Every structure is written in C-alpha cells, then in structure tokens.
Amino acid sequence: MAKEDAKSKEYIEVGSDRGHTRIHISTWRMVFNNFLGGLSWGFGTVLGATVVVGLVIIILSKLDSVPIIGEFFSSILQSIQP
Questions:
Q1: pTM of the model as a whole
Q2: Which of 19, 47, 54, 63 is at a distance of 20 to 30 A from 70, taking alpha carbons?
C-alpha cells in the first residue's frame, strides 16, 4: 500500500498560467532517467558515425578514376584487411 502511495505522488502538473510546469518526481528517478537518456544518445551517435564513416570510405575507395584519392583509400583498405 505504501508503494502505491509513493507512486501516486509522482506526476507532472501543467499550469494554465503562462505555461509553467511543476514536476513532482523523485530527484533520483529524474537523474537516473536523464543518465539513461544520455547514455542512449551517446551510443546512437557513435554507432551512426561509424556507419557513415564506413560508407564514405567504401564509396571513396571505389573512385579509381581519381588517382590520388582512389590509391590512398585502396591502400587503407588493403592495410585493414587481413
């Protein structure tokens, strides 16, 4: 019963006066939620950047018509592959 009372006290109150909002949530819960959100955002950013950089390297390695760029990225790919 005590757990239900504690959970029922957590709410967000939107006031009609000038858009003010009151948040009635535990500070630790808010810190934990923000931490998880930041962790997810950072992981997604790193994963997305890895995919984009990988695609750019693959596309640039296919440019054999441009001698300097094509040879440069081909040598990078050859050194990466076993």
A1: 0.52
A2: 47
**Structural domain total, the chain:** 1
Give the pLDDT score at 1: 43
20: tokens are: 């003010």
What value does the mean pLDDT take over residues 42-66? 85
Domain containing 50: what range? 2-80
Could you tell me which residues come within 8 angstroms of residue 33 by beta carbon, excluding any fewer than 6 positions away? none
First to last CA, the chain: 62
Is 50 exceeded by the pLDDT of residue 60? yes
The dihedral region occupied by 62, where left means phi > 0, alpha psi between -120 and 50, and beta the remainder, is: alpha
Assigned token pair, 51: 């995919």
Residue recorded with tokens 């950047």: 49
CA 54 – CA 76 distance, rounded (Å): 12
